[in-house]
Amino acid sequence: MTVKDFPEECWESVFRFLGLSHHHLESLSLVCKQFLAITNRLQFSLTVYDPTIPLLPRLFLRFPRLKILDLSLLNGHHEGLLRQISQSGLELDLINLSNQRTLPVDGLRELGSNMKNLRVLICSNIGSLRDSHLVIIAYCFPLLEKLDISFPLNSQASDFGVLRLSSMLENLRKINISGNHLITDKSLFSLCQNCLSLEEISFFICFKITQTGIASAIRLRPGLSSIAFNIEKKRIHGPGLTLTPIDLNLIDSFRTLKRLTAIDLSNSVISDEFLFAVAEGAGLLLKKLILQDCCNCTFSGISYLLSKCQSVQCLDLRKVDFLTDQCISKLSVFLLSLTTINLSGCCQLTNSTFFILTRNCPLLSEIKMERTYLGVEGEEDSMRDFSVNHEVKKVFLGDNVLLSDASLVKFVSICPSLQLLDLIGCEGVSGEGVVEVLKRCSEIRHLNLANTGMKVFDIDFEVSNLKVLNLSGSEIEDETLSVISRRCGGLLLLDIQSCWRVTAKGVREVVENCKTLKELNLKNCRLVSDDFVAWLEFSKPSLRIIVTPTDVGAYY
Asked: Domain F-box spans what residues (predicted)?
């Protein structure tokens, strides 16, 4: 039986079952015309860059099942682009318009006339956001379930716009209004009162929203599953300087959130009493807890909360600076369900914390310990009592200036199934240490060595799984690029920004030998001439080349 004898529907089911990434589908599309047609139907997401715009009509025809369109990386003002999308015949679920100077009103109207079933609209970091934009969004997309209008650069949106929006979006389930500094308790109250399906709400840096307003809104919508906000760290004058107290009414309201699965209180003034209330409300349903840079609570409050919420999977305790290795050891007995943890900025944590987590958290897949005391041996720094953990796939250890090759090799020996390792700014790690990492972790796909001062690493074996390599700011020369080109033939992205010692010779060797390369960052490579870059763009049109802050090439 040949490929053609096997029905396309069966091939499509096989590809779906395998859960192949975009890059794997792209490789399959080269096998035969039948596979090309099948993989085109399995492309559901498209990211658009400025140079991609002329190709959009052909891309829309090629990928008829697109559901997600990301326009957030466009640099120019493309008024007619939304009109073109509206006429494409696509049935989109999500459009991302983030990072634009303003929202194109006429384009939104045209888009809404043909895509009223749009469910998700992301408009974060818009240059200017007004009440009129909110009204048009609600009118054009009445079935929206998720809306992100967070952190506009110039927010003129007020309670009036949010009230009109909330009265028209009955199906709204998730909304992010963070950074809209003019809105008050009235906006929060109207969203919780009018959007009967509301489950998730975020309102960071909305300091006209009071603690009393938050408490009232929570009591109006006790079925919330996710809430994210910050209690401002302003100080009030008294006999001395004291932190703003938490309203008892707000504390009591959190006891009513019996369906809470996620809470983000980043950069907030909280208290142990507040954490006790969260524990009493959420209990075992809580899956995500973010207490980044929170103050005025103690280890007792965090420990009590985690002891009552032992289903937490995502835990973020960044910059909780009172945490020690002993604290982590005590908390780890409650973290049997933990999959990701972020302890960056916890400056007292040593190697022991890494070993404790990999030993006591059997489901842990991602560890972030940037800007800690890693590299210093703690009380539990012996390898004797630690077993291999195959679940850990991603480790971020950036800016640990004390981290050495010896400590790094210990870490990767415990986590041999690593797929991503980030060592940005770890100046104590040498090329020899990196080679040992690659020997012990053959599944690594993403390696970040930016700003490490790396000069050379001599690999004498194939590193076939490595797809992303970041060497920006390093001291490598052409010789190292030659090694990379011969040993890392499967690279998709290479970043050598500000590598002042590389020349066109080394870059050419990488491009010629790494046949699958999709993106190459050459910013500030002083010895790579403009003429060579122009030749490269002409001879490798599918390669996205970055040479200035404005992207020169594009790929999708």
From this structure: 5-43
Instruction: Name the 3-class secondary structure at 235.
Output: strand
Q: Where would I find the beta strands (DSSP E) of 131-275?
A: 146-148, 154-155, 174-176, 200-202, 226-228, 235-237, 241-243, 262-264
> Which residues have a Cβ under 8 Å from the Cβ of 73 and sit 6 or more positions away?
47, 48, 49, 99, 551
User: Phi and psi (nearest 5°) for 132?
Assistant: -60, -35
N- to C-terminal Cα distance for the chain?
34
Q: Output 21 or 55, whichever has higher pLDDT.
A: 55
In whole angstroms, what is the distance from residue 265 CA to residue 255 CA? 16
Q: Mean pLDDT over residues 147-171, rounded?
A: 96
**How far is the C-alpha of 291 from the C-alpha of 408, rounded, in Å?**
28
Residues 192, 199: Cα–Cα separation, whole Å: 9
Asked if 167 and 137 touch (Cβ cutoff 8 Å), the reply is: no
Paired tokens of 533? 């870059």
Distance CA 266, CA 264 (A): 6
Judging by beta carbons within 10 Å of its beta carbon (0-12, 13-18, 19+), is residue 369 exposed, middle or buried? Answer: buried
Residue with tokens 């009513």: 256
Contacts of 330-335 with C-beta under 8 Å, sequence gap 24+, read 330/303, 331/302, 331/303, 331/306, 332/356, 332/357, 332/360, 332/361, 333/360, 334/303, 334/306, 334/307, 334/310, 335/306, 335/310, 335/360, 335/361, 335/364
Q: Which of 34-38, 60-64, 211-215, 403-407 has the weakest average pLDDT?
A: 34-38
φ, ψ dihedrals at 545, nearest 5°: -110, 125
Gap between the Cα atoms of 390 and 414, Å rounded = 8
Rg (CA), the chain: 26
Residue 12 in tokens? 């499509």
d(CA 145, CA 197): 9
User: Greatest CA separation found in the chain?
Assistant: 87
* Confidence (pLDDT) at 551: 36
Q: Look-up: residue for tokens 């770890």?
A: 426
Report which of 518, 480, 520, 471 is spatially closest to residue 499, judged by C-alpha positions. 471
Position 103: which residue type? L
- The amino acid occupying position 109 is R
DSSP secondary structure, 487-533, as one string: H-TT-SEEE-TT-TT--HHHHHHHHHH-TT--EEE-TT-TTS-HHHH
Closest CA to 413 of 435, 387, 382, 375: 387
Predicted pLDDT at 244: 74
Question: If DSSP codes are grouped into helix, strand and coil, which group holds residue 47?
Answer: strand
The single residue listed with the structure tokens 């091939």 is 11
Tokens of 503: 């020349």
DSSP annotation of 295: B
Q: Which amino acid is residue 546, in one-letter code?
A: I
Q: How far apart are CA 65 and CA 44, in angstroms?
A: 6
Element (H, E) at 373: none
Does residue 104 have a pLDDT over 70? yes
